[in-house]
Each structure stands twice: as structure tokens, then as C-alpha cells.
Design goal:
By secondary structure, the chain is an all-alpha fold. The protein contains four helices and no strands. The chain has one domain. α2 packs across α3 and α3 runs antiparallel to α4.
Amino acid sequence: MSHVPHELAEEFPDKVQQIHDLKMADAHFAKLADEYHEVNRTIHRIETRVEPTTEEVEHEMRRKRLQLKDEIAAMLEKAA
């Protein structure tokens, strides 16, 4: 448990402008980024015990965040 938010700008520090540009130009990318943000914030609330839940739910949220991050990374790579 890290208690550190995994914001997209921190995950892809060299792609901040590209993330912004894609969010403006690609509705699917914007939806993925928004979903990533929501899942990431939920995980952070769980980690800091603001939003208690079961371990199973926490692990599922982490899997979802990783899946979204992988999809976002693939779209960033394709757009580069």
C-alpha cells in the first residue's frame, strides 16, 4: 500500500502534453483518462482508509487501474 496517488502525469511525465492533446481530440481517450482518474481516486481513498472496503474490491480496483493504464499507454504509443 503506497498511499501515493498514481496520476497520469506522474505515470507518464514525458507525455503530459500528449495526454492533454489526446483528451481534447479523442473522446475515447478522454473517457479512459476520466475513468482512470476515478478509479485511481477511489483506490487512494481506500488506501488512506477514507473509504473502507474489502481486500477483494481493492484488488479488483487495482486490476482495473492497471488495465486502464495499459490501454492509455498503448494509445499514447500509437499517437506518438
